Ubiquitin-like protein
Amino acid sequence: MIIKVKFILDYYKFIGKHELLLDVKNNSTLLDIIDYINNNIKNGFKEKIINGNEIKYPNMILINGRRAEFLNGLNTSLNENDEILFSPLAYFAL
């Protein structure tokens, strides 16, 4: 299935792209996507985003416009054509 992943500010600088289209296995979770990016795109990404089973502050992860913390966190199941946005929390406080 295809997932669109977008990066804002610090994450764009770290990854080097604003957007990726990832072809991942069905039934992937947010954690699977973070692992995929860490293992295939940019090593060290996972350490910037999560600490154990928690999203690190001040990271904000949106799945189709909804904060991951209000869904099922890192275990949120993804569907074809979902959109994930990685952004510093401060970006939304402006």
